[in-house]
Design brief:
240 residues
């Protein structure tokens, strides 16, 4: 219980502290000449926040694979085990990126403004119009040079195995003409979800950043076929 309380304190406390520096960071960001450099600069604070959360929760992260911070925008597609997926991925992935996130995240204190600076996009799953807007916003963000990450399962698996992928998010990559980078994450459900989020225990998490799927794949394959291919690659990596 102490570990849980300590980590929640870090999440809220560091977010509040970081927000006091946000205006200064915005001004510094505008001085940088490229979108990639601006995003990388803003992501430094998010990475510090994520690292402190993981340290407070006694979580270690092992990262392998195609982890390169270049200026080519991509759509990351990851499986979704637990609540700790977000700080783990922010910590693990070298490229700066925003999340396609559920609309409820806007209610978390201090977080919304940072989500916007990271070029994240909100999705209200109860509203079909919101889904269409998410695709439109995602395409525009990628074409501007930002990176995005989406959880195509839609909900946490809580360690119960890989769920079916929703192909809708792939429309973003297809319309924007960017590569897709699959990610296999394992071990986060053991931190909290294993105990119905009533406890938090030390854990070791693995993040595998798999080889990119080229944008040209959509020339010969449907959205469903690409979704199945990516899901199969992630599943193979999880069981390797």
């Amino acid at each position: 219980m102490f570990r849980l309380i300590r980590t929640v304190g870090v999440i809220i406390g560091y977010a509040a502290l970081a927000t006091t520096k946000l205006q200064h960071m915005k001004k510094q960001k505008e001085k940088l000449p490229t979108v990639h450099m601006q995003d990388t600069y803003i992501s430094l604070m998010a990475k510090k926040w994520a690292g402190r959360i993981l340290d407070s929760a006694d979580v270690t992260v092992e990262v392998t694979g195609h982890n390169i911070n270049d200026d080519q925008p991509v759509l990351f597609i990851s499986n979704h085990e637990g609540n700790f997926d977000i700080p783990v991925l922010v910590h693990a992935i070298e490229k700066p990126f925003g999340f396609v996130s559920k609309i409820e995240v806007k209610e978390i204190p201090f977080l919304d403004e940072w989500m916007m600076q990271l070029n994240s996009i909100y999705l209200d799953r109860s509203n079909r119009r919101s889904s269409l807007q998410m695709i439109k916003d995602g395409v525009a963000s990628l074409k501007e040079g930002h990176n995005l990450l989406i959880f195509p399962e839609g909900h946490r698996s809580k360690g119960q195995g890989l769920q079916e992928f929703k192909a809708g998010g792939l429309k973003i990559a297809k319309s924007a003409g960017v590569d897709i980078v699959p990610i296999a994450i394992s071990g986060t459900a053991a931190i909290m979800e294993k105990y119905n989020s009533r406890r938090m225990v030390p854990s070791h998490v693995k993040v595998q950043i798999l080889e990119p799927v080229p944008a040209a794949i959509f020339q010969d394959h449907s959205l469903d076929e690409v979704g199945q291919l990516i899901r199969a690659r992630i599943e193979d990596a999880l069981h390797a």
